[in-house]
Design goal:
The chain is an all-alpha fold. It has helices spanning 2-23, 29-49, 55-78, 84-103. Helix 1 runs antiparallel to helix 2, helix 1 crosses helix 3 (55-78) and helix 3 (55-78) packs antiparallel against helix 4 (84-103).
Amino acid sequence: MAWIFLGLAGVLEVAFSTALKYAEGFTRLIPSLLFVIAYAASAWFLSLAVKTIPLGTAYAVWTGIGAVGTVLVGIILFQEPATAARMACLCLIVGGIIGLKLVST
């Protein structure tokens, strides 16, 4: 169950990062509120995950999911470049996440 909580925390990290972009420096109310809600929910699910998963592993996986997801959102929603180098770096992050999952109890 802890890994499910960690996955949800990672997805919510993508959500709060995306809301942060739409909040335009916290000048727009709804995206700003969505940021706060998603951030709090992400932290809560992360706190549940670290009850079982080692802290270093959980934090690295959480930030990895958030980084990969946020880059993909940037490419899809904000037309950020999807260069070969960026995709290769994303693959390295995903490989690290998978590796941490495989070696963690």
